């Protein structure tokens, strides 16, 4: 008698494509490109490990299309008008398609908006937010942005990528447009219909540019965030959470060709505890599960819903969650249980993929004892905030050293 296949091991159709299992690697910025936004050796090795790691889907980190406005000094760039930049992307995508034909490769496209770092780039905004601000953008700016996304998606489709991820989350530009706080009187402000208009236009134009449905369109969506008037709140200045608009957004994108959604919460400008629960805010992981189930309940059965924010669960031990036996408190327990009962369809690995990019393979090979579990110390986030190359500062020696050097600079008495 064979060994039973767990839900996490089962393949799943995402649109017209097949993922070999239920593990998805989150788009994790590690700011290890060069100052022209090109891949470094560190970037290439990082993705080699992720593809070797055995996940069904790898979503590449937030890729900027406009180096003029960006959140990270060494953020990766896709510039289809630059022959050198095109060439590196074509070589990378061709190599990964040849080496890992059974792993879906999706690229997340990104504009940081008011979260652009104005010490080295241009900060722009939809409506000035206290503490941020920036140059106010207009309809022409958004129309050019949409066209740059469409052009990039077409290039990626022709170069071997399996799909594109549209980033409607974490307080970046598209999230800024969607939030009720954007009550400004312009084409993309005020009513939900106006605020969602750009998202629908973008999705429709990408699908027209790439009519082949084997090229996936999806989105990472903050169902709600941490600021009054933010995504998933019930008014321009309201602290009250109401995910009605987030559900409507996903349904509208679904109707226009989106085949998957990565659930997330929070706003990068407000802190990490909701986006990325740690042992001191571990209960937020259940909010992620709840919001993923809410999306699953409201979307078509064939649309794939992926749950995020799960790294804190680890192996069930020392994760800050009480009231359950460790065996029923782990990433694998909840992933399998929730998939089996239809709460969501896949799990997304973020910080855990930095701690151990080979977790899916180890799970599939029944080598759970060999997994390096993320401790959710968020040192990776501290490195990112300091514009340092980002990685696991627990298990990966170069990043341990980077983190130690950072702490010596800032808090010499703590070392």
Q: Would you give an account of this structure?
A:
The strands form three sheets. The chain has an eight-stranded parallel beta barrel with strand order 3-4-5-8-9-10-11-12, surrounded by five helices. Strands 1-2 form a two-stranded antiparallel ribbon. The protein is of the alpha/beta class and about 425 residues long. The model has no long low-confidence stretch (mean pLDDT about 95). α8 (about 330-340) links the parallel β11 (about 305) and β12. It is built from twelve helices and twelve strands. It has helices spanning about 40-50, 85-100, 140-160, 175-180, 190-210, 245-255, 285-300, 330-340, 350-355, 360-365, 380-385, 395-410; strands at about 10-15, 15-20, 25, 55-65, 105-110, 125, 135, 165-170, 215-220, 260-265, 305, 345-350. The chain has two domains: about 5-375, Alpha-Beta Barrel (TIM Barrel); about 380-415, no CATH class. α3 packs parallel to α5, α5 (about 190-210) runs parallel beside α6 and α11 packs across α12 (about 395-410).
